[in-house]
Every structure is written in structure tokens, then in C-alpha cells.
Amino acid sequence: MPLELLNISADRLSQLPKEKTVFFFPVSALEDHGPHLPLGLKLFEARKLCELAATRLERELPDWTGVIMPDAPLGVDTVTTATALPVRAHVLRDWLLDCSRGLMRHGFVHFACFSGHLCPRQLTAIEEAGKMLLRGRAWLPSSLSKRAKRARRGHTRATLVSACSALVSAREVRRSPLWADPPEHGGAGDTGIGLYLSPAAVASSFVELSAKQQTGSYWRRGLLRSRRKLGGYWGIPADAEASEGQKHLENKMNDIFPKLRATWEGSNPNHLFRSWYSVIPPNKGFFKIWVLAFVLIAILWIWTFFAIEGLITTV
């Protein structure tokens, strides 16, 4: 049975098999899903996916152990913005990195992060954390990294994978490359998951809610997002069933787990868990720093150009 890190002692932790223990991180921001669903629905979902992965790990690999980390209400991006509690990218990235590095000091090497939100900047931040854990430095190419070199010499390399990145198709990235724009939010799908995971947290009035369409065009919704005025639900909550919510989560795990197992058996996680959101510059956590650096360099270059031209004119 999977362990809870909160509930085990330091002695019990030290006794776990170092290269056959996987730590699962559940993360997601709190946000509005309509009047019938809790703010933490996506965090509940991330938690359940961790439990499913840990249980399947121990079933398919009996000598391995799954450990579930404490729930972290950390999300860089959300679907709605009127009532949401996102954090900056480095907050999520640092939480994952610092915890993973702390466990690495005890010899552990396998880490997986599950996010209830499949938002571009959210998945990108988790993928960046995985790359930084492998390289040791954000800016260092993997070919020069000491950790990568140790892995090539036969050491088991530490991996932190963004498990839910495996669920994002290229078509979804093309359709909405900069922010999440799902066809439903708080509708039958989300409500079904809520009924399955925490029926007491779902308001019984969901059966009386009317169907709602998404507001305006894609760009109109983007404008509302930027003004923090996008909220509520869209979809048909009244059609929700707990059994469909359960099936939805199990289907997700069927897509994810074979790739997780391949990673633990030596496959490159960057080939299996890359959403392609991470290749789009505005989604990157360091994008604003790059822009600022470019602007400063441009200003310095212009100042230098006119200063030299002025000297030449004077002479």
C-alpha cells in the first residue's frame, strides 16, 4: 500500500529502497469551478492520480514503493481568473526542486509530479524543474552537466517528470498555445470527477444548473482572463455521473503509467513527458528575464553607438 510522507518517520524513510522508491507530488492551484464545485477540485484530482499511480506501481512492480508527498495548492496558471490563487512559476519550480534535492541527499532518484491543471505555463514550469534537477543548473547544457555525465557512467540518474504532460496532444497545443481553453469547465466532466472523489463537497444543486456555452471567441476569453474577469462554469453539470468521473481518471492513468514505467526502466523522460508548450517562449518561467535582458542590451548598444558617433563628430 502506498505510503504518505507525512505519516512516516525518518527511520522508516531511510529504510526504503533508494532506487526502487518513487515520490509522487500532487499540485494544482485553487480556482472557481462554478457554484457547485470546491475550489480545490483540481488538487483533489492530482492527489487521486498520484494514488492511482502509486497503487499501480506496487501492483506491477511488487518490490517497488510509492510515496505520496503532501498536497501543494501551487499552480502557475488556471482556467478561470476571477477567483483563482495562482503562484509565480519559480514558486512551483522551487518547491519541486528543493523537495527532490532534499530526498536526493538521502539517495532517492525517482520523482513524478501530477497536476490537475493542464495549463501551458503550469506544465512548462514542472518540465523546467525536471530539466533543472537533471542538469543541476538551469542554464547548463545537459551535455556538460555533472549529473548527466554520472548517469552516462552507469549511475542511476535522478528524474522528475511532469506526468500529466503526456496527456496533452499537439492539436491542443496548436488550438490554445498560451493559456488553457478547455471546451468545458465545471461541466459534466469536472462535476463527475467531484462526485467520484468528494461527493460531500459537491452541492446537490448541480442537477438544477442550466447548460452554459463558453463566453465569446477565443480572443475575447483571453481578454477576460487578462482582466481577471473570467469565472464560473461552462458545460452541462446536470449530466454528471460519478462513474464517468472514475472512468475518466482511470483512462488518464492508462495513458500515463506505461510511460512512467519506461522512464524508471531507463528511457529518456524528455522524450516521453514533453507537452510542447515548453517550446513557446512566453510560457517559460524565465521569459520576462530574457525580455528584460534583451531590452537592456538594446539600450546599451544604442547608447554606445551614439556615444561613439558623438566622439567621432567631435574629433
Commentary on this structure:
α2 packs across α7 (188-197), α2 packs across α9 (242-264) and α3 packs parallel to α4. The protein has helices at 10-15, 41-60, 89-104, 120-135, 146-152, 170-175, 188-197, 218-226, 242-264, 269-272, 287-314, and strands spanning 3-4, 21-27, 30-31, 65-68, 84-85, 110-115, 159-162. Strands 1-4-2-6-7 form a 5-stranded parallel sheet, sandwiched between helices. Strands 3-5 form a two-stranded antiparallel sheet. The chain is built from 11 helices and 7 strands. The chain is flat. Mean pLDDT is 91; it is low at 137-145 and 147-154. With 315 residues, the protein is α/β, with parallel strands linked by helices. It has a domain at 3-183 and 248-284: Rossmann fold, CATH 3.40.50.
Second rung of CATH, namely the architecture of the domain at 3-183 and 248-284? 3-Layer(aba) Sandwich
Mean model confidence by pLDDT: 91
CATH class of the domain at 3-183 and 248-284: Alpha Beta
The share of residues in extended strands comes to: 5-15%
Largest sheet: 5 strands, parallel
Task: Sketch the topology as an H/E string, one letter per element.
Answer: EHEEHEEHEHHEHHHHHH
Structural class: alpha/beta
* Distance N to C terminus: 82 Å
CATH topology of the domain at 3-183 and 248-284: Rossmann fold
Number of strands: 7
Please, how many helices?
11
Radius of gyration: 22 Å
User: How would the global form be characterised?
Assistant: flat
Q: Portion of residues in helices?
A: 40-55%
In the sheet with the most strands, the strands line up as 1-4-2-6-7
Low-confidence stretches: 137-145, 147-154
